[in-house]
Structure formats: C-alpha cells, structure tokens
Amino acid sequence: MDSLETDLVASDYRAALAYDPRAIQPCGCLMAVDRQWRRIRLASTNLADFLDLPQADVLSLSPHQLLGASLIEALQHQLSRPSTPRASRRLTGRQRSLLVTAHGSAVTATLEIEPLENLDDDLTGRGVAWGRRFDACHDPQQLESVLLQAVQEITGHAHACIRYCTPGAGDLEAGTGLRMVADTQAKPVPLIGDTTVDASLAFHALPDRQARQLRRRAVRSVLAFPLHDETPSSGGLLIGYSAIPRYLAPPVRQLLQLVAQAAWQRHQLLEERSNLRRRQRLLDAYECLGSEGMQHLSIRSLREAGQTWLEIFQACGMLLTQGGQINGIGTHPEKSTLSDILRFLDANGRRRPWSHHDLASTPLAGELTADPSFAGLLAVPLRTGNDTTGWLMLFRRATANGTSPPWQPADLHQAQELARLLSADMTLCQARQLAKRLQEHNTTLARLAHTDPVTQVANRHRIEQVLDAELLACEHSHEPCSLLLFDVDHFKRINDTHGHDAGDRVLYHLAQETLARLRTSDHLGRWGGEEFLIIAPNCTLHAAADLARRLCDEIAELPMPFAGPISASFGVTQWSAGDTPKSIVRRADLAMYQAKQAGRSRVRTA
C-alpha cells in the first residue's frame, strides 16, 4: 500500500538530494568514454547485464564493440552541434528496448543507459492536457494544486508537495536538475575505473546514511525538481514521494520537467498579478495615514491602515519602533520581550532585513519562551538617510507543526517598500514614479498574457480575441475575410530526432519568417502545438489561396540548420454570412486535413 503516516521535513528533502559519486542506482547502467571515444574509462558493474553480453572486463572493450558503430557515431554527431549538451538514441536489445543518453561533448562524454518498457504512447497528449488545465487557473494557489495533481498522475507518486526556499533563513535551496531515487532499498551499483564522472542526478545512488534516513520514514521512492527562473534561492522544489518503489523512464521525466516548467511560468505570471494587487492595496492603505510623517505618527492613524497590512502579509501583529517610540497593532510579543528582539536584530546587522518561520530554532527561542505561540518574524529596518532609526516587524503565529508559513520573496520586497514609505512622507514626484512603474508592470503583464513564449507571436487566447473582432467587423461591413490554418509536417519527428529545444527553435524561426511575409493588417497566432492561424482581413479566398501557396513554397526553402528542411500543410477558407469562430476554424481545419491526406506540403481550400 502506497501510504505514509507523516509528511516529510526539510532534512528528508536534503537527504533525497544527496548522492554518492562512486555508485549509481540499479535501474540503469553507465559508461564514460575517453577523448577519442575509443576506450571506456569508467563503467558500472551491471553494464554487461544490461547489454545482454557475457560477463567480461568491459573496460577492455571499445564503445563501438558494446553499442555498435552507428549508434556511437550518431551520438558523436549530435554532440558536435553547437549548444547541444545532450544526445539520445534508442538501442534495441534481444530482450528489451533501451535509451542511451550521452552528455558532454563530441570528444568526451558520459553515456547513461536505461530501459524503455511499458511507456504510455500519448505522453505529448497528456502534457497538452495538463497545459490546458494550467491555463484555466486564475490564482497561484489553484495552480499549485493542479500542478501537484499533475505530478501524482504523471509519476504515480502518492504524495506531492512544493517546498519554497525562504531567503535569508538558511533554508533548503533548489538545485539545477531533476533528482530521482527509484528505490531507497535497492543496492547501489559500484563504478569501476576512473570514478570522477559527471552523471545526472537522476542516476546517482543515495549515500547509505541518507538511504537509511528515508527508509526510517517509510519512503521507498522520491523525486525532486527545481522550480526557479534565474536565482535558485528564490524558487523551490517540486517533490513527489511514495512508500513503494517508482522508476520513471527518461521520456516520463522529460514530460514532468516540461509540465512543471509550463506550470511555473504560469505561476510566475499569476504571482506577479497577485503581487501588483497586494502592492496597490498596500499603497492605498498608506494613503489612510494622511500627511502625518513618521515623527508624529499616531496610533489612531496607524490602526486605520494596519488591518489591511496584516491581511496583506498574513500576519497576526505588527510593530513599529522609531526614536524610542513603539506602535503596534494586532497580536505581538510583550514590550519586555521586544527589547531582547531589538538587541538581536541590531547585533545581526542594522542595515539588513531578517526573517524566519521557525523562531524556536534561532537564538530568539530563549527570548520567546514566555510566549512560544509566535513562530514567524519578518523585520525590516526603517531608515532616515543612511541611518537605521527603527524597525518594522511583522509576526506570524505557529501552526500545528510549530512553525509559521514561510515568508516569500514578495513578503520581503513589499515589507521593504512599506518601510520606505513609513520612513518619510511620499512626495508628489515619488507618487508619479510609483504610478509609472505600476503602469509599466501592467503593460508587461498585458504583453505576457497575449504572447506565446516560444514563438513570440500571439498566443491562442489572443488570436481567438482577434478572430472574434474580425468576424464581428465582417458582419457589419460584409467585406471578405480569410483564414489560413497551417501545421508543420512531421513535427514529432523533429522533436524525437533533434530534441525539444530544436523543435522550439523551428517554431520560433517559422513564426518570425511567416510574420515577415504578411501584410501589416494580417494577424498571426500560434493555435496550438505546431499549428498556426493567419487571419487575413479584406482578402478573398482566391487571394488567400495564392498567399498560402507562396508561404508553402517558401517554408520548404527556409534554412533550418538545427533541424533540416521542413514543410507545412495549409487549409484555407473564407468567411461566409452566419459563420462563427468555431465553424470557420473547423472548415479551415478540414481543408488542412485534406492537404495532409493528399501528401502534405500542399494547400487545400474549403
């Protein structure tokens, strides 16, 4: 039965991220080649078993003898391309199908070999379906819930969670790759030869001490995937774990990473929107203070804005100290305890914010023994010029596990902004600057909401809006309007052969080249996957068909050095009275299907 009695704690996550560089997990095998790919300088002791070879000293054989010359040459060729750190090829043995993944360079590489049995053939469809569910989410919490459901469905893990890193608290920081432990009870497979090898985190074995720790927690399998953009310390870990063994084949791990990245991009957009709303509420509440400066801040005016600030920061209490005065709202430690907290903050740097969500594990634990119900503290200095004149302190109560919800980067940033506002009166110039930045943020959000991140043309939502508007205009003006729906032929073959990065580059290059060949009045958007939609106002069916034929011919001639020649099939139709967006797109889609049935790289009208 796949169930655990308790949730994992931070030390368990750290244990799962640990690895033994001298051994791998038995779910795969490994070899490393020399600079000429002529000699194996390192191998796992189970290599012969995986390749259905007689037990022998594999270090005495060449890579070509073990895997075949054609496979080795194909991997070398892939790795010789610019910006191609990984290459994969399928190897069919007598008893099972294997995937060989090489990473390194054309002159030296590590080859990881894993089984490919019992895979779901529709991994792409599953990824698209989860992407649609992410797009339907309208707040970060809803998106996190759907993402955890995706992890459980894709991996089969019974438990999934997201653990965020708390800046400045010495908390867990996300790494740079997916970590998989298929079975904490499995015996590690030693490496023979030169043991300084660069294997992926999904391959390395757990050290014995960390494996015992997870087994004591009844954890048999675990995976961890970093969620962050540019700074690992500002993101978190997406974690799945089970009480039974779970091995994830490379295509499943790749799908999980793509799904998680798509969800995280959507999450960042929703977080930005939420933060802008929170920031505006913070500024609105500040205006309730009127024209009083911090030197004359009354408790009455502070309380007028304070309840909103407590809601924004999900805090139970707030304290402001400046010039020997202490003003507080909500529930907070007694003033006798406050002096000890202030001494600690001053000793730890009068210019730096400080935060923690588990005060019982910090030097402040002794000062809070009289009231241990406070578990979270975020403290930001108040400054006049270059001098620290006081502190803004926000408190959170302990939850059932003795800690408070972790402080997020947005909490820190907005607390710092509030501290700046409370340190001095806002001038008209400052207000105009804030309004301008808010407008720039809104402009950025609008662009992100309407642009496909891969192709940098209109996304599905935006092109649907344009289609609605153009068809409405046709109803009033009775001017012609045509649709061109086209699809990249055999696009899955490009992803399978050259990788998803090359596929994304093909889509971007194709979209930009197509856009350059359209009129300024035409609209181009990514309809989904490798499909694109062109809306051509004031364009007859005949003229649209001519445009489609030109584009079809020119696409076939486009240079694609990273993927080889491509082609596209076009379906063309014209608006008719009574058409709806759904009916006209369905007609274009039928025509495109007929073009594909006729041999692809063709144009059909409907």
Explain this structure:
Helix 8 packs parallel to helix 11 (409-423) and helix 14 (491-498) packs across helix 15. The model is unreliable at 167-174, 291-296 and 425-431 (pLDDT under 50). The chain is α+β, with helices and mostly antiparallel strands and 606 residues long. It has 17 helices and 22 strands. Strand 5 and strand 6 form a beta hairpin. The radius of gyration is 30 Å and the shape is flat. Among the domains are: 290-444, PHY domain (Beta-Lactamase); 451-605, Alpha-Beta Plaits (2-Layer Sandwich). It has an eight-stranded antiparallel β-sheet with strand order 4-5-6-2-3-9-1-10, covered by helices on one side. A five-stranded antiparallel β-sheet has the order 14-13-17-16-15, with helices on one face. The two termini are 56 Å apart.
